[in-house]
């Protein structure tokens, strides 16, 4: 079986070894490939999955993509505990070690600049969700004896006394949902403004689709912040201080991560580096 080289990240030479127990794709531990003043974190992967043509099909398989992304992130997360790394894009693949060396040569200046900028820094993610309560007035009572859709019994709301009462309930419910959205948006603006001042860089990402993330509510803010590692405790405390007790608005803090959002182009493989030969 032909094997290719999967490149997880780029770092500088460092004292020490890979974290014990770290496993990448296929359950295999990655290895370090040194080339000049840079080191690539690589692993062997089968060409039948990662060559250009099969990779395009694989990337449409959500289960395969999820498992690959988790293995990719596990290696980068482990590396972050021992040294500063530039994470590469998912499915950055070279034909062999020579191809990895050419990748390092092509991006040498960008990798070096990015490593210097990211040294000693981590990424924290902050998301804000508008999570209004379900609308009990939106559904009229079903037929007598009909089973509830949920396994847990819930008290059925009283039937509206009239059509006007039904419309009044709907209007009240809609206004409540709109109020949640307004509060979520206001909180998002405040959080981003305040946290940006406490971070060395900030990035706004597109809100996540709840159908894919399976998170409750609608994502309003999806932001990342580059923070010195030694300032992380203060940053987390500031997020807590700015988070209100609001049942309809939820704040989610994640991290610390490798600084994916701030790797810039140095962390992005070009079109000929993903699933192709070098």
Automatic annotation (TrEMBL):
<dbReference type="InterPro" id="IPR009430">
    <property type="entry name" value="GvpL/GvpF"/>
</dbReference>
<keyword id="KW-0304">Gas vesicle</keyword>
<feature type="compositionally biased region" description="Low complexity">
    <location>
        <begin position="136"/>
        <end position="163"/>
    </location>
</feature>
<feature type="region of interest" description="Disordered">
    <location>
        <begin position="132"/>
        <end position="165"/>
    </location>
</feature>
<dbReference type="Pfam" id="PF06386">
    <property type="entry name" value="GvpL_GvpF"/>
</dbReference>
<protein>
    <submittedName>
        <fullName>GvpL/GvpF family gas vesicle protein</fullName>
    </submittedName>
</protein>
<comment type="similarity">
    <text>Belongs to the gas vesicle GvpF/GvpL family.</text>
</comment>
